[in-house]
């Protein structure tokens, strides 16, 4: 099983020659930004604010503390932290020690955490004791008991973490910038979420360009409203874009309009990024807020499709410019540009970051369509991409990689798009078995497997149903074992109690006697889901 599928060596040489890959690590980035902006605010939390010098020193101490705790360069550590300043000191500390963070989201529970830890053979978990009513450290300790490689749990606020964070800084060798820096999570469409290996070189290129495309300057103030471990608030342009620019990051403990607007006024926030349902909630709240939002210049909206109607309301309601972003943890990120005409800003999801992001829009009816099976210009097709910051393979997933990538290295995004002459993409749908619940991704098969673990369930198929607020919600169609039909409420509780993120618990459960016939008489999951999706749309 390969940890990392590198780019072909000539391709890598070109990306270096063209200046995309600069041989800088995240640790070195923080050092150079701190040299230029030591006294400026780097991060603002609920109870504290750190300058770049403060962040830099904390990251040095944590790096030393990790080494003292016996964690070695090249090892993996699962990081599950809410939006608190320690997210940054921990992650930069891990980077300086050459240890790879595995980015779990706060919503993840035992089942997901155990999978990330065992799949990456993590040495430790870094989390908080408690947050928002959930006992994170308790779950992490349970995972440590289940997964042999996990030797330690460091929960912010506990003795173990304090010791880690107060070690005396020491000189450490800078890791290889071409090596894997961290493992990001895929939204997934198959059984369990895949891990995405990103290198210092490739990710920093996307961070630098994102900061430039979003016009970040040292005077900018970025509000991280979404959970920061996600690729969007992490790097589009996100907290890392802010660090790169020497700008301040304000961490919102919750994304609701009341919290966000209070922080926008107090910290004079200039830029933020939200998913469409949150944008809609902010637009609504803005009409009656007493908070001063006049500092906001740009609001990025992405993670799920931002419909035209919502897109049109954002600028007038919030008094800022809209920037659409269509990205994926696997790599490719598209932005509408700040000087694009309104038609493109409102009607497309942007164009790629890099002139060397290769985009192919191919036959959508053939799941194996290759890079040469392009549809006519302007037609809808399946999006394939490769480029200087798009992975060539998932972490330790050789079988899956054989179908998720074309033989010539294009990633099959599973998104259906139409390309404009300008290169801007319009996302019109999805070919992958995934539900996009307002930006939160649910792999149909993962939830089906949880449902099928119930003794009363014979078969299950999870599909998207349109939803006014979230765009889509999940509906599980379930065929019960004869005479044992569990109720919808029982099944939802069953899935929740298996320790999965709440957003994966099916919104609707329909217990049916049998799945609708597919016409061709096939019983494959794919056919079933297609039939059920059609049925759900009719309703
Ligand atoms: C972002 O990353 P992921 O990995 O959670 O999800 C990627 C998928 C895309 O393949 C697409 O299906 C969907 O999310 N998506 C959008 C979208 N942005 C993402 N679909 C329609 N319109 C959009 N604007 O979601 C992500 C990563 C970096 C930046 C922004 C979003």
Automatic annotation (TrEMBL):
Family: Belongs to the ATP-dependent AMP-binding enzyme family.
Span of domain AMP-binding enzyme C-terminal: 446-522
Keyword ATP-binding: no
Protein name in UniProt: 2,3-dihydroxybenzoate-AMP ligase
Top-level taxon in the UniProt lineage: Bacteria
Domain AMP-dependent synthetase/ligase, chain residue ranges per copy: 35-395
Stretch forming the signal peptide: none
GO MF annotations in UniProt: acid-thiol ligase activity; nucleotidyltransferase activity
Stored Pfam families: AMP-binding, AMP-binding_C
Record keyword Calcium present: no
Enzyme Commission code(s) on record: 2.7.7.58
Stored PROSITE patterns: AMP_BINDING
Keywords, ordered alphabetically: Ligase, Nucleotidyltransferase, Transferase
